[in-house]
């Protein structure tokens, strides 16, 4: 792939990434709980941006603040210092929270509160009477606006204690979605023992099940607690793109007009990038392109598909009469998508940094991954035969 074409395709991909991110519906989550319940630690370990460390949030009411970051489709509504110091304090907070829920509901999906987390610290060993009173009244309001509430047992160092506290809360028969024990980050005990974090992926899965369908791609993109969720979304994107490429490729396309495949593949890479939520620069995209489609001596994304490439794709047919077959188009698209997912997974796991992708070693690794994916035996839709048979 020549340098100029690589640059042009990379620029189109960057524009597509910006477009996908711009069009994501903002996810709005309200987080409640007493001071010291570990709300900030929870937020910063669930999401891929440290919203709880962005300084002073925007005041929404006297005590509720909205935390958000520009060009990041997530807003956290925080109720700091919820001490439940008496009837007046409870009534005031109920009034303010209802105001937020009501205004959001009137302004549409982008401004609505989509989920509420009520945090209770497990080491407290109890669900205080004032909290029970508050949350029962609050649940009536949340249910009025059809907003799901999840009780999150934070700082659950002891699973036994968390289970006991959960049992106590369940006795109240509260109308909540679920009670979820979590430990938001690893805890080092005297440098001799580490209590591993847990529960965040479960929390995210529950949230995914209760928020509107239109927000599930947003959740996958902004959260970092469940790589499995990102992987599922990304694989679905590749399957859709491969099917679209197969439909396009089924029509006889002269080599010189092969650029008709570009939209499917550009959209695929842009959507995968958005799902993983990893900041990518144009230089990185260019490096990935040159290390994948440049490796096999072909411009998969426009211009020419050389016959020698077919030898690397077992059982997908051949190019005849100057056309790209459906199976070839699907296989190329699927291989590119799967390789890109593998790269994003490595970056997400800390096995490779974004900056390393543009190095000689990084490009060699990318090329190796792509060639491996390209060599899989596939069906006409680009799906690995081994996977199909499972």
> Considering DSSP H and I runs of 4 or more, what fraction of the residues is helical?
40-55%
Distinct helical segment count:
13
H and E order: HEHEEEHEHEHEEEHHHHHHHH
Mean pLDDT: 82
Reported by name, the CATH topology of the largest domain is Rossmann fold
Spans of at least 5 consecutive residues with low confidence: 253-259, 296-322
Q: Determine the oligomeric state from the structure.
A: single chain
Distance between the termini: 36 Å
Name the beta content range: 5-15%
**From the coordinates shown, what is the CATH architecture of the largest domain?**
3-Layer(aba) Sandwich
Radius of gyration: 25 Å
| Superfamily (CATH H level) name of the largest domain | P-loop containing nucleotide triphosphate hydrolases
Overall geometric form: elongated
In total, the number of domains comes to: 2
Q: What is the topology, as strand order, of the major beta sheet? A: 2-3-4-1-5-6-7
* Strands, count: 9
Main β-sheet description: 7 strands, mixed
Q: What top-tier CATH class of the largest domain fits best?
A: Alpha Beta
